[in-house]
Amino acid sequence: xxxxxxxxxxxxxxxxxxxxxxxxxxxxxxxxxxxxxxxxxxxxxxxxxxxxxxxxxxxxxxxxxxxxxxxxxxxxxxxxxxxxxxxxxxxxxxxxxxxxxxxxxxxxxxxxxxxxxxxxxxxxxxxxxxxxxxxxxxxxxxxxxxxxxxxxxxxxxxxxxxxxxxxxxxxxxxxxxxxxxxxxxxxxxxxxxxxxxxxxxxxxxxxxxxxxxxxxxxxxxxxxxxxxxxxxxxxxxxxxxxxxxxxxxxxxxxxxxxxxxxxxxxxxxxxxxxxxxxxxxxxxxxxxxxxxxxxxxxxxxxxxxxxxxxxxxxxxxxxxxxxxxxxxxxxxxxxxxxxxxxxxxxxxxxxxxxxxxxxxxxxxxxxxxxxxxxxxxxxxxxxxxxxxxxxxxxxxxxxxxxxxxxxxxxxxxxxxxxxxxxxxxxxxxxxxxxxxxxxxxxxxxxxxxxxxxxxxxx
Length: 458
What we know:
The protein is an alpha/beta fold. It contains 13 helices and 21 strands. Helix content is 30%, strand content 22%.
């Protein structure tokens, strides 16, 4: 069975932002084909080496997409089902896998089910679709209480033990496979979803498409509680019904180790997760340095040039790397109190605040390298050395290996790497094929400033 995610490099788009859609849905306007803007950009995205497209919420919602009101209707602010079908068809022609965001934990207050609850009250059949509905007073003044996701009462949590509710959600997912040919789902708030629902959703999607990929958003906790269904090697402990989760632990370590001049932080996480005896060894976790919910990496780092070793590590560590639109050019953005919209700009805004076109070229080179070297996609992980401003590790699989050596210092650095094996030459596959010799199992080399070398035996 092929695990296509291991060979994928994701480009993450938040469509409502990228396409410049209004921030509120008026539920009356005719669909406007704003998705055409993204369709027109697919050629550029593919040319950079991305072969998987993760699309944030696409279906009818109140405002930001994570407050759905209809899982079968494309958000009118983005266009029609035909517009989305055209986008997906073009992406497939360019060799891209397609992953949709699935918001199944909660709905917006304008969802027909919640409107029925408001009209019929807590003793009605409509109440059975929601979690913890009981007489009382809601924050919006209704004569009932209900559970809001994470305390946000504009997001009403669903009861995923309710058979008709489950059937509608699973039916929507299956319709996306049939109508748009998608290859996977990113499940919003996956750690809040009922485990039995996840099992049923997983079984139904894979019955429809055997290679279907399910990735869950999981900010904290043990990723094995959700992921591990089709790991190349079973991870230690329990394996969940999904294929992958978001790797928020390494997200934090990736930027923080550079911001604090402390590669020990990310090295610890990588060894704990993927080293010998690592608890997630064999899992293809979803790796990223920023997304639609967190500040841009460029805004977290004290120096822009640190973006280069940052992306070198992202593209060479275990997992499936993802780049959030605009970040390939070093876009900056931070949250403001009560709003994530600064993180979700239009395409023009995202490209305009990116100040490093050379970063885009570097990311394209890293993508090409990852595709060329199988160990970077499928290899085990072994730490070789770590210091505050430099680290090195080996990725090895099926008799092939690659050594990644990173330098976060503002000047070139000399390192000695214990690589073992016979004396011989090592070729730097990232920097034009420069060669270095090892003697007595030690490889001595100079690392370029704020950059990396990726070495294979010549």
